């Protein structure tokens, strides 16, 4: 008889409908409702990308199903049956709902992993804290994967995507060395740096690992999607970077949003609409790498991280 181990797969979450955007945005703002103008601005951004479906929901569902299949096909822990649960940060099923469901299903041991490879106290740690608090309340023993930003299969999957787009640039007449590769991730308030947060360094490590693997030297890092608040956010912002690159006569740019793993608003709007508009203004050719979504190499990465974490915590 196999032992059941729960896997809480945590992701950002997305509204279920246009009407649900208000509640979702209020949750992101820790219970403070947005002004009518802020809400309308977000609704407009979703309307520009969704076409009736919120892509992140379907992508997360598929990632969770694929991970469960990959884990149960893995021969390293033959006595374990993995059961994956979804826990979202800002939408249903919330992180707490996922942990509660595990307890109701009789799961005694579980591992948590976030669908974001890089650790920050403001991102991954906040998912972990909420899951741990609920797990303590309902009596599930949990351990957590904190980051997996240098896993060889993750680097391989991202490198293939960069190479694929560099080939397209070549077909369009730009040699590899003439394309500036711009790695990007979600900005966070600058204060995380003073607090010694590893997020910026981990992102640079992933960027360097990809650049070294495929031999590109013309690359740099930029931040995207910063919040519109009064506190300073990590920069340089990607839109400003495009403007500076244009002044340096760079005409071809490939964006690699390595801090994200799915097609969603921050990629489909902030890069494919907003950054593309700036690139057009600058007469620049801008492409973006395909997102990982359920790439089998990404599933191997998650699978290894889960198994290693369980072993390290001596829970199996
Ligand atoms: O497609 C979708 O429906 C959801 C796309 C989405 C992802 C995402 C990932 C991250 N965020 C991170 C940090 C922040 C901080 C704030 C913040 C605000 C928003 C808003 C929307 C939004 N985020 Fe997000 N984020 C996504 C969507 N995010 C919508 C609200 C409007 C706006 O500012 O654009 C500021 C919160 C505050 O006001 O206090 C901080 C980080 C990630 C990547 C890691 C992760 O996935 O957890 C970090 C996807």
From TrEMBL:
Tell me its EC number(s), please. 4.99.1.9
Query: In which pathway is this protein known to take part?
Result: Porphyrin-containing compound metabolism; protoheme biosynthesis
* Residue numbers binding Fe(2+): 186, 266
UniProt keyword annotation of Cytoplasm present = yes
Keywords, ordered alphabetically? Cytoplasm, Heme biosynthesis, Iron, Lyase, Metal-binding, Porphyrin biosynthesis
Q: Which residues bind Fe-coproporphyrin III?
A: 12, 29, 45-46, 127
Location within or outside the cell: Cytoplasm
Q: What does this protein do?
A: Involved in coproporphyrin-dependent heme b biosynthesis. Catalyzes the insertion of ferrous iron into coproporphyrin III to form Fe-coproporphyrin III.
Q: Which family does it belong to?
A: Belongs to the ferrochelatase family.
Record-given protein name = Coproporphyrin III ferrochelatase
Please name the source species.
Answer: Paenibacillus chibensis
List the gene name.
hemH
């Amino acid at each position: 008889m196999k032992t059941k181990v729960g896997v809480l797969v945590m992701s950002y979450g997305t509204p279920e409908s246009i009407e649900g955007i208000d509640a979702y945005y209020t949750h992101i703002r820790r219970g403070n409702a947005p002004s009518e103008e802020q809400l309308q601005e977000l609704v407009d951004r979703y309307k520009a990308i969704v076409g009736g479906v919120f892509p992140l929901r379907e992508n997360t569902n598929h990632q969770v199903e694929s991970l469960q299949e990959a884990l149960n096909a893995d021969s390293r822990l033959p006595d374990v049956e993995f059961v994956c649960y979804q826990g979202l940060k800002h939408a249903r099923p919330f992180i707490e709902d996922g942990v509660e469901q595990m307890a109701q299903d009789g799961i005694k041991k579980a591992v948590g992993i976030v669908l974001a490879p890089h650790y920050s106290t403001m991102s991954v740690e906040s998912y972990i804290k909420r899951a741990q608090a609920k797990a303590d309340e309902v009596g599930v023993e949990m351990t957590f994967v904190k980051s997996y930003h240098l896993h060889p299969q993750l680097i391989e999957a991202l490198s293939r995507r960069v190479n694929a787009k560099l080939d397209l640039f070549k077909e369009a007449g730009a040699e590899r060395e003439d394309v500036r590769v711009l790695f990007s991730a979600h900005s966070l308030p600058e204060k995380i740096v003073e607090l010694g947060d590893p997020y910026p360094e981990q992102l640079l490590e992933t960027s360097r690992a990809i650049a070294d693997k495929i031999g590109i030297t013309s690359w740099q890092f930029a931040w995207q999607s910063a919040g519109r608040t009064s506190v300073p956010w990590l920069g340089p912002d990607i839109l400003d970077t495009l403007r500076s690159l244009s002044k340096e006569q760079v005409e071809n740019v490939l964006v690699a949003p390595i801090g994200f793993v799915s097609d969603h608003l921050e990629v489909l709007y902030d890069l494919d609409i907003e950054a593309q508009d700036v690139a057009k203004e600058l007469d620049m050719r801008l492409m973006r790498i395909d997102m990982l979504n359920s790439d089998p190499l990404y599933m191997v990465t998650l699978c290894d991280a889960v198994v290693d974490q369980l072993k390290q915590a001596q829970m199996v």
